[in-house]
Amino acid sequence: SSGINAEYGGYRIDVSYITDNILVCSFPPTRSDVYELKRFMDDKHKGHYKIVNVCEKTYDATMFGENVSSYPTPPNGVSCLIDLWTFCEFTDSWLKEDDSNVILVHCQTGNVPSGLFVASYLVHSRICWTSEQAIKHFRTKRENGIISLPCQKRYLKYIETSVIAGEQPEDIKLLFSNISMSNSPAFNEDGSCKPYFVVFQNGEEIYEFESTESYKTEEPISFPLALHISGDIKLQFYSVSDILGTQEMFTVHFHTFYINSSHVRFSRDMIDGAHLNTFKQFTDSFSVTLEVK
User: Fold this and answer.
1) I need a surface site. Which of 17, 49, 274, 276 has the fewest CB within 10 A?
2) Are 179 and 235 in contact (CB under 8 A)?
């Protein structure tokens, strides 16, 4: 079965079978929707299902007993890598326990981040050999099932890398010594930017910096720092303006386990917020380089 239906075989439920054992649906917003989801799962897979909520929102799941687990994930970002890996191992174990077992994953829309979790499992289990195949498989089975953000593609590639290497990711410690932009994005009225950025480690803010000057240059702009980092790192960059206020410029997500060079360059198409470049605020050659030790 595939496709997305408001009605699914007489049930008011928006569900897609990604494989015979992996289902995806959108968030059940009301108690009656939760009940309808339970009715469907009990009718089709009674005693053989687990539900995984990857939405930041929760609901009263007591009617499902002990069968619901949660990995809260922002819709426009990524889960922490260990959550993805744990989900893959949990799913693998549950599906191998009995051929009739299924797992249902849902988020707000049933697209992202559900797709990231499901595609990670498709790669982890070798149902799909590459992250690109997993993204394509999810898209063919789930209408609007698009995994398109650079950070999501990067984390899916991380899973692929670890599966191929046969190693579980760890929180490697690094010294983060510099961030540089290849040139200045055009966010303020005069085509300049006044950078302000925040560094998050495993979801917690650990550093922030606000520039005292604006930049309008084709030359690299560097921000030296001395920051010990480990695990999931998110760099959130803003531009500050008296007239336009604080605007989000771009975001870079990465995990320290996969940093194997002292200079790591992210090209524009690998940077969330810059990859689409809808308003042409970034040059095509724009990039961000990190220096680590």
Assistant:
1) 276
2) yes
Question: 224 preceded by cis ω (within 30°)?
Answer: no
CA 97 to chain CA centroid, nearest Å = 28
Tokens of 260: 């194997």
pLDDT digits (tens, 9 = 90+) for 185-241: 999 999 999 999 999 999 999 999 999 999 999 999 999 999 999 999 999 999 999
Q: In whole angstroms, give the CA distance from residue 226 to residue 214.
A: 23
106 touches 113 (CB < 8 A): no
Q: In whole angstroms, what is the distance from residue 128 CA to residue 103 CA?
A: 18
Tokens found for residue 130: 């590459």
pLDDT confidence of 128, banded at 50, 70, 90?
very high
Token pair of 252 as six digits: 């870079």
The number of beta carbons lying within 10 Å of the beta carbon of residue 260 is 8
Q: Report, in this order, helix, strand and coil percent for the chain, each rounded to 5.
A: 25, 30, 40
Token pair, residue 173, equals 């410690």
Collapse the DSSP code of 118 into the 3-class scheme (helix H, G, I; strand E, B; otherwise coil) and give the result.
Answer: helix
CA distance 95 to 118: 13
DSSP code at position 77: S
The C-alpha angle with vertex 265 and arms to 264 and 271, in degrees rounded to 5, equals: 120
Residue positions annotated with a catalytic role: 107
Residue scoring higher pLDDT (193 or 4): 193
Per-residue confidence band for 8, with pLDDT thresholds at 50, 70 and 90 = low
Give φ, ψ of 265 to 5 degrees.
-105, 130
Q: What H or E segment, with its residue span, contains residue 252?
A: strand 245-255
Q: What angle do CA 81, 86, 107 make, to 5 degrees?
A: 75
Q: How far apart are CA 103 and CA 115, in angstroms?
A: 13
